[in-house]
Amino acid sequence: MKASLFNGKSVLVTGGTGSFGSCFIRRLLDTADCRRVIVYSRDELKQFELEQRLDSDKMRFFLGDVRDRERLMVAMKGVDIVVHAAALKQVPAAEYNPMECIKTNILGGQNVIDACIANEVEKVVCLSTDKAANPINLYGATKLASDKLFVAANNLAGPSRTRFSVVRYGNVMGSRGSVLEVFKRLRDEGQKVYPLTDERMTRFWITIEQGVDSVVKAFSRMQGGEIFIPKLPSIRITDLIRAMDEEAEFDHIGIRPGEKLHEVMCPEESSRQTLEFSDHFVITPSIQFFDKTLDYEKNAEREKGQEVADGFEYSSGTNDHFLSVPELKQILKEYGL
Fold first, then answer.
1. What secondary structure does DSSP assign to 317-333, as a single string?
2. Does residue 131 carry a catalytic annotation?
3. Which of 9, 89, 131, 260 does the annotation list as catalytic?
C-alpha cells in the first residue's frame, strides 16, 4: 500500500462492517496515517463489534443506508476518499426481491455519487463483481448499472476535483455467504456428500487481502472512468471440494437460476475498450468525457498498457492460470480452513 496516498486524509467506506470493508479499514489503520476513517453502514451491532476490535481514536461511525441521500450528504462532509462497498449481493435474494436490490445497488449508488460531488470528495472507487459482465441475474444487472453510473459520474463532476473509478473482481475466498463457508460447515459436521451444481464449473478466486490490494492500487492508478480488473487464478469447484475433503462425494443438484458455468470479467463485447497491464486489465469508458486529454494507455503511475486482441474475453473457464488441488490445500491451511 502507498501509505502516503491516505496520509492526512479522511476516508469513508460504505458497507464498512462487511468482509471487504473491515479488512480495508484494518489495512488503513496499520499502514497509513489517516486523519479520520469513517464507517457508513446500517447495522449498529456490527459497528459496535468492529469498534471493539479496532479500538482506534481515528475511527468514526455513521449509522445510515445508502438509500438515504440526505444522510450521505452529512456523512461525507470533509471527506477526501470514498470506497463504495455497500451492496445487496445474494443472487437468490435479489431474484425474489428485485426492487430492494435496485434501490440499494442502483439508486443507492447514485446517492453516493451525488453526495461525493456535492462534498467535493477527491477520489471514489466503487466495488463491482464479475457478475456485472454479461449479467444473467438481477444482482449482476444492478451492478452493471452501478458500474455505468460511476463511470458516467466523471462527466457529472465536470471540472471539479472529484473522480470516480470501479474495481471488478471475482469470488472472495471466505467472505460471508461464500460457497467455501457452505463446504466448510458440511465438512465440520462430518458430511461426506457435497452439493455440486456442475462438474465443469469454474470461478475466479481472490483472497480478501488481494481485493484490498486491488482497490488500493486503483486509487494510485486512476484518472477517472476506468474499470480495473486484477489478473486472478481460476479454480474448478470440484478441486476446491477435494482440497477440503479428499474423500468427498458429490450430490449433483444442477445449476441454480441466475448462475453461470464460468465467470467473465472482461466480456468479448468490451474488447475494443480493454487494455492489458502487467497485473491487471482496464476497461476504458465507452463515452467521451469533457476532459479529452485523458490517455488511459498510461495510468497515473505511468504504467503502460496494451490493447488486447479484438474478441478477447477474460473468462474463468479459459484462464491460463488454474490453482491445483495441492495449491488450494496450502491456501486453505494458511487461512485455517
1. TT-S-B--HHHHHHHHH
2. yes
3. 131
